[in-house]
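User:
Can I borrow your eye for a moment on a structure tokenisation matter? Would you put together a sequence-and-structure record for a protein of your own picking? Please set it down just below, with no commentary around it:
AI:
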Amino acid sequence: MALRERVPLWVQSRCGLEPRSLAALAVVLVVAAIFAAQHFWAGRPDQVRPPERVREGQAAVKPGPAPGPPPPAPTGPSGPAGPGARIVVDVSGKVRQPGVRRLPAGSRVADALRASGGVKDGANTAGLNRARLLIDGEQVVVGAPAPPSAPAVPGTVGGPAVGGAIAAGPITLSTATVEQLETLPGVGPVLAQHIVDYRTQHGGFRSIGELREVNGIGDRRFADIQPLVRP
């Protein structure tokens, strides 16, 4: 009624406003005013805080994982038989500077002779294989006198002895080379090397019976070798 009284009479008469219609109109106007105020508030500009300046020379560093322990040292090929490994050989006989020599692994007999000052003039090197690979603890004897000839085996005239070996004088186990040991009956390169290894480990042979302790020499083979060797 109060709103109706405020509306001029000519508006009331022209529009034909009833009290109920006037109340509905008032509600519509209030709702419209609320929406207008909400739209105005939502459209106002927001204040944005400017970013902080980064000092010159500083950079954001993302922390990474902590460093782990260093990798283990390589093994296997780079061990005693790998690059840089050395062997020890004993060079004796008719060389200018006999003695123990330390040589790189993979050296040959010729390298050992060169490290010992070379072979003396007039030395007999016919049975010396200069191209043979050396092994650790080996002894190289230069110009060793040839063993004296032994009597031929009964039933043969200067021919092969029992087992196919040429009859020869006693071979000195403590100084014989691998090539000389291979001339014994039933002794090949592997068994000859076993004899040299045993000699190196035990400082030579004190008796012929020690051959029984070498790997690969049984009673039968020892019986064939015994007459042909000496300590």
Summary: Residues 72-80, 146-168 have pLDDT under 50 and may be disordered. The longest helix spans residues 19-42. Helices lie at 2-6, 9-15, 19-42, 109-115, 178-181, 189-202, 219-225.
